[in-house]
Amino acid sequence: MRLPFFASLIAAIGVILPTMQASVSINAQFAQLFQSDGITGIGAGKIGILVADEGLTPGIVDPYNTVLSVGSFLGGTSDDLIIGVVTSTANVSGTGASGLQQTFTSINYSGNFDAGDKLYVLWFPTVATVGATVGSGISYGIYRSDAVNTASGSDIAFFAPSDGSSSVLAVYLNSIASGSGVTNADFTASHITAVPEPSTYGLLGAGALILVLFRTRNRLC
Length: 221
Known about the structure:
This protein has helices spanning 3-16, 198-220; strands at residues 23-31, 47-53, 80-87, 99-108, 118-124, 139-143, 166-172, 191-192. The protein is an alpha+beta fold. The strands form 2 sheets. Strands 3-2-5-6-8 form a 5-stranded antiparallel β-sheet, with no helix packed on it. A 3-stranded mixed β-sheet has the order 4-1-7, with no helix packed on it.
């Protein structure tokens, strides 16, 4: 009588196992990340994030309104998933330059996040708190590359590696091969988060006015 149950259990396991994925490890190192002047390093204690574009809506998303924690999505509603958060250091891998250095372990593929998704790194020279929400007018830098920068120790390009692997993603501006096209501008916080549209403020103002009128009406009744 128990055979049908065990047969069903084995069949269910057979369906589940192929969909289970091991985690990956990414050793990320990015030296010589600059503030908005393109000269001054970001220093120590600033927040950087490693992001995966799940590919449903390709392209880099403005991080306005993003909660800087693992599992959050850029902008709160995009498909660009934060898979790692790191605090900057003043001396990445002995280069003497400030930037990001962290081995992100137990990165799990699930849902729409899978091997082959594009990766990119963002850094915020004025944000020093993990879990902070990025407001409007905050400067940030962004970098990704489709090439493997072997000169800096990378063994993968900016794509999520194969399942179960351990990889190195390292980009040092002073060690990139000549002619690669990489410049200081690529490592400068030259972007600014969007300011909410005037229409957004208008809606907020209209909502506040309705609330005031509602309260006034209740007092008169």
